[in-house]
Write a structure and sequence with these properties.
By secondary structure, the chain is of the alpha/beta class. The protein contains eight helices and seven strands, in the order H-H-H-H-H-H-H-E-E-E-E-E-E-H-E. The strands form two sheets. The protein has a four-stranded mixed sheet. A three-stranded mixed sheet has the order 4-6-5, with no helix packed on it. Helix 2 crosses helix 6 and helix 4 (93-101) packs across helix 6. The relative contact order is 0.11. Bound molecules: heme C. Heme C binds at residues 45-46, 48-50, 59-61, 63, 66, 71-72, 74, 80-81, 83-84, 91, 100, 110-114, 117, 126.
């Protein structure tokens, strides 16, 4: 009796071993082909929203240690959708492949607004790259560089070290116009609709009370003033109609 039970258990465990082996053999050719170096280049499609530096969260979470992690659990990322928090899956070759093919199909309601990588090869490359990153073996070229060029993320520059032309000493407003004064002595008038006001409370954000203006030519719609906290914004901007009362 006992020995029969034992042999049943044995048979069962052989069966599952064989099943596992079969799976491995079947999946090997499909999953093992990604090239991390090529993946680093493909990752530029992700770098506007994701950093591979641990703890550096942007629109999306840092992907520094995503491998074999439960979805929606990167420490310090505060913007997960409910759908992602509830998704009970672990990031592996297979789940990442589905995710990157069509995020919305794998996790309906996700806030990752990315249509997906249509080419299987491109997905395999990025997956190989993410695995290498998690193992601390990322190809040198892609540690940060790609993202910086593509993304124009102000958070990549240390705003505490802004040059005088970036240090905002005062902002006045009159009607539809902001008057921005900077530490280099310049005064520029900007149409209210062209000036964006942002906050950055992170380690690279500005010193409290010392907002920084970023972005080329204030004539365009790209200039933004970054404050350390939202409460500073309206306190900093003073009514100022100068001579035209
Ligand atoms: C437009 C911005 C954007 C782009 C581009 C983007 N992502 Fe995302 N990604 C996000 C956001 C936002 C989330 C969180 C989604 C949620 O909570 O529903 C996310 C989540 C993820 C996750 C899950 C992370 C976790 O903590 O479980 C992975 C993996 C991922 N992205 C990989 C990629 C890869 C690889 C690319 C490029 C092929 C890419 N993403 C492109 C914004 C983006």
């Amino acid at each position: 009796m006992i020995s029969r039970m034992k042999s049943n258990v044995l048979v069962a465990s052989y069966r599952s071993m064989i099943a596992t082996l079969a799976l491995l053999v079947l999946s090997e050719p499909t999953w093992a082909t990604g090239d991390p170096a090529r993946g680093a280049t493909t990752f530029q499609a992700c770098a506007a929203c994701h950093s591979t530096t641990a703890g550096e969260h942007m629109t999306g979470p840092s992907l520094a240690k995503i491998w074999a992690r439960k979805a929606g659990t990167v420490e310090g990322f505060q913007r997960y959708s409910e759908a992602m928090k509830k998704a009970s899956l672990v990031w592996t070759d297979q789940t990442l492949d589905k995710w990157l093919a069509r995020p919305e199909a794998l996790i309906p309601g996700t806030s990752m607004s990315f249509p997906g990588l249509r080419e299987s090869k491109a997905r395999q490359d990025v997956i190989a790259y993410l695995k290498a990153v998690s193992e601390g073996k990322a190809p040198a070229t892609a540690q940060r560089g790609g993202g910086m060029m593509m993304s124009m993320q102000p958070s990549k520059v240390d705003l505490k070290k802004a040059p005088p032309e970036g240090q905002v000493t005062g902002i006045g407003y009159c009607g539809d116009t902001y008057t921005v004064r900077t530490a280099d002595g310049k005064v520029e008038k900007v149409w209210e609709f062209n000036l964006r006001l942002k906050t950055d409370s992170g380690p690279l954000g500005p010193e409290p009370g010392k907002p920084v203006i970023v972005g080329g030519g204030m004539q365009g719609d790209r200039a933004f003033v970054v404050f350390a906290a939202p409460s500073e914004i309206s306190a900093f901007i003073k009514p100022d109609c100068g001579d035209r009362k």
